[in-house]
Automatic annotation (TrEMBL):
Superkingdom per UniProt: Bacteria
Biased composition (Low complexity): 25-34
Protein's name according to its UniProt entry: DUF839 domain-containing protein
Biological classification of the source: Bacteria, Pseudomonadati, Myxococcota, Myxococcia, Myxococcales
Cleaved signal peptide residues: 1-23
Organism: Myxococcus stipitatus (strain DSM 14675 / JCM 12634 / Mx s8)
Pfam families: PhoX
């Protein structure tokens, strides 16, 4: 998942609110715009060219650092990609609607469209197009808040803003007064923002091979700042030492940023307060977190190779979406961690979800013995052994205690109980997209009830998981006591019974589940002690088979036996496959809506798409494994009807807990489809066509917003941010549950991380990877 940029739309006078977005790098012109003068470079050898900074005082020295607005591009050389950035979309005024903020303004325009009273020639929703710019509906104004490599402090050698931006959370100044949760509290004109940094686009440098895309731009930046000395465009100059240096700097570009932002009351523009206590958290050992609820396979080390305390790991990376907790911390999802330090589940399944017979350490007929040791190769692994880390140290929902020192892991300082950063081993390892927490209408935890956290495994065939703490939350609990509740609890997987394995977006027989006639599902506890019935027990002729027994069985469903619950949580996808939990179409984002227009709290899920076959058949059996009469397993050909590769447009579903007032106690739920993506070529109303929903946003009043990732590939229209009309008064109207485009991204940029300011007068959006696959010169 990635982020997109928002842009100026109208020239009217600014009246009060704004929308902010985060974007990623884009391609540049032949020489690129010149930034502000950089710091003087240190004296160097004659002949070393400067870049965007001026030469040092003694003559042609090594390059000065680029100025704050400078793009890292060598003069006369066209850059590969543009720069990601965060932008703010500003509400300029009600323009006759009576709205007081951006959300109300958009909803007022929707009402006018439905009623047929939209003023002529007013444009709404935004017309479909794919331009190399940020477009928005009239009445809104966009500015860039910060972009990749911008300094976040006034320190000349201090931290810089990271790469491809994603999840955003806003904390208005003064949010915690009277015990408030951070959502929609405090100042709407000043506050703190958390922003995820997921990855760098393009291909990394390797020995003998030069980088491409954003990796090339970053290498040029390092070359011109004196960190690299090789000719970065010449593959022959990339040897072990240069690659190792690059990888160390690359690790600083992911993770997250904690920055204070303020709005100019005169212009409405947002800017970073560089004199505040801004902090970068990254993949180096300068950031450390404690894994709780799980025992790691070994002891990790810092970047020098020195051992870290047991359970403590170095850094966080591949940070996609996340969640803002009611107690003021951040969950950040470590999604595609398998490309960095490896995937212990990779030996059992191919990239197309096919079963691998007799996979070492994971073969049926024996206890599972996965390899968690540090890999010898990987995206951030160099020749130096200290650059690699344990496979089971990554792929977690990581709770960052924002503002605390990056190396302050949870429990490190006995004088500060409940403070610091941790990884939720209790929720297991997966390709986590985000986390959603059950809250009441004031975004606070439910008193006298366990804490409930939902998370999505963003892979083709991934599942929705639900964690329920062992002990309940009590009103007035201190932050440290609240956090301690997440140290232990039960983990469940959502089994959407009757979902069609060929489509993943309808029930068997092509029936679409609706809120009037929903599908039925249940929560399956994943543990060796679980007495829940295995969803695939009946298919194997064992209708009373329990989940715990199935997981321990060394041959059940062509997968070896789990030896303890740590293994179950480290191999979540495999465990869910073994017991037959229904696979899903990439659950990219989940959001709890405590104020849903339906009148009942709902869990919304964005299913982006599914482009590969499923691992299981309709009955929950491994699709490419067959068992002989002697009990041995062999590879079988996948049936043509067992190939969920048809969903290229995605959908949005909603789950309603059986006990909506106490979701922790619910073991069953109903589910229905809220919105279906579509192709403009086959749509009766192509101006409303959108595909591949990604990040979801629930506004203060329960309104649902979403960004897209991949709409260009389906509709040749740029990705954007949409408002989903669910006004009950519009039910039966053609515009009910249509997606209204509010913002359009630059070329090939993904729209991610939408987040409102406390007063909803500003919408912050991440513009991720503009120009990644299509030419762009934005910004």
């Amino acid at each position: 998942m990635s982020s997109r940029l928002l842009r100026l739309a109208t020239g009217a006078m600014l009246l009060g609110s704004s929308l902010s977005l985060t974007a990623c790098d884009g391609d540049a012109g032949p020489s690129g715009p010149r930034g502000a003068d950089g710091d003087d470079g240190a004296p160097g050898q004659p002949g070393t060219p400067g870049r965007d900074g001026e030469p040092g005082p003694t003559g042609p020295g090594s390059q000065g650092q680029p100025g704050p607005g400078a793009v890292a591009r060598a003069p006369g050389v066209e850059a590969s990609t543009p720069l990601p950035a965060v932008i703010a979309l500003t509400f300029r005024g009600d323009l006759g609607t009576g709205a007081t903020n951006l959300a109300e303004y958009v909803k007022a325009r929707v009402n006018q469209v439905v009623a047929g009273t939209l003023p002529t020639p007013f444009v709404f929703p935004l017309s479909p197009a794919s331009t190399d710019s940020v477009r928005t509906v009239p009445g809104l104004y966009s500015t860039t808040v910060i972009k990749w490599m911008d300094p976040i402090t006034f320190n000349k050698s201090g931290a810089r803003f990271g790469a491809n931006v994603d999840y955003i959370a806003f904390f208005g100044d003064g949010w915690s007064a009277q015990g408030n949760a951070p959502q929609y509290q405090g100042s709407g004109a000043a506050g703190w923002m958390w922003i995820n940094h997921e990855y760098i686009s393009g291909s990394k440098p390797r020995v003998g091979t030069a980088p491409t895309g954003q990796h090339l731009d970053f290498a040029r930046f390092l070359r011109n700042s004196g960190t690299l000395s090789n000719a970065v465009t010449d593959g022959t100059t990339w040897q072990d030492d240069a690659v190792a240096t690059y990888n160390k700097e690359w690790k600083k570009q992911v993770g997250g940023s904690w920055i204070r932002v303020v709005q100019d009351p005169a212009t409405g523009e947002w800017a970073v307060d560089r004199n505040a206590g801004n902090v970068r958290y990254d993949a180096t050992s300068a950031t450390q977190a404690k894994v709780v609820g799980m025992t790691l396979s070994g002891v990790d080390h810092d970047d020098s190779g020195a051992a870290l305390p047991p359970g403590v790991v170095a850094g966080t990376h591949n940070n996609c979406s996340g969640g803002q907790t009611p107690w003021g911390t951040i969950f950040t999802g470590e999604e595609n961690a398998q490309g960095v330090y490896g995937d212990p589940e990779g030996g059992l399944w191919t990239g197309k979800n096919d079963w691998v017979a007799n996979a070492p350490g994971m073969m049926p007929g024996a206890p599972l013995a996965p390899d968690f040791s540090p890999p010898v190769s990987g995206d951030m692994v160099s020749k130096d052994a200290s650059s690699s880390h344990l496979k089971d140290g990554y792929g977690f929902l990581t709770e960052v205690d924002p503002g605390q020192p990056a190396d302050l892991w949870y429990g490190k300082d006995a004088s500060k109980p409940g403070v610091g950063h941790r990884k939720l081993g209790v929720m297991g390892r997966a390709r986590w997209e985000n986390a959603a927490i059950v809250v009441d209408a004031n975004w606070k935890l439910l008193a006298d009830q366990p804490i409930v956290v939902y998370g999505g495994d963003d892979r083709r065939g991934g599942r929705i998981f639900k964690f329920v703490s062992s002990r309940p939350y009590k009103a007035g609990m201190a932050k440290a006591d609240i956090r301690a509740l997440l140290d232990e609890g039960k983990l469940y997987a959502a089994h959407l019974a009757g979902l069609d394995n060929n489509t993943g977006d309808s029930l068997v027989g092509g029936v679409v589940p609706t809120d009037e006639k929903p599908g039925q599902g249940r929560w399956v506890e994943l543990s060796l002690g679980s007495t829940d019935l295995a969803p695939n027990g009946e298919a194997w002729g064992q209708p009373t088979m329990t989940v715990g027994t199935a997981l321990r069985d060394v041959s059940y469903n062509a997968i070896g036996g789990f030896t303890d619950d740590d293994q179950v949580r480290k191999l979540l996808w495999t465990a869910a496959n073994k017991v037959g939990v229904m696979e899903l179409n990439r659950p990219e984002d989940l959001e709890w809506n405590p104020k849903d227009p339906s009148g009942s709290p709902l869990l919304y899920v964005a299913f982006t798409e599914h482009g590969d076959p499923t691992a299981l058949d309709q009955q929950g059996r491994v699709a490419t494994a067959s068992r002989g009469q002697d009990g041995t397993w062999a590879v079988k050909t996948r049936a043509a009807t067992e190939n969920r590769s048809t969903d290229r447009v995605g959908s949005i579903f909603a789950l309603r807990e059986a006990n909506a007032a106490a979701p922790a106690s619910s073991r069953t739920f109903s589910f229905f489809r809220v919105w279906k993506g579509e192709s403009a070529a086959t749509s009766a109303a192509p101006e409303y066509s959108a595909a591949k929903p990604d990040n979801l946003l629930i506004d203060r009043d329960g309104g649902v917003w979403f960004g897209t990732d991949g709409n260009f590939g389906v509709n040749k229209v740029a990705d954007g941010v949409y408002y989903l009309n669910q006004n009950p008064a519009h039910r039966g109207n053609a515009h009910f549950r249509r997606a209204f485009r509010v913002l359009s991204m630059p070329s090939d940029a993904e729209a991610t991380g939408p987040a409102f300011s406390a007063d909803m007068k500003t919408l912050f959006v991440s513009v991720q990877h503009p120009g990644e696959d299509q030419f762009s010169v934005w910004p």
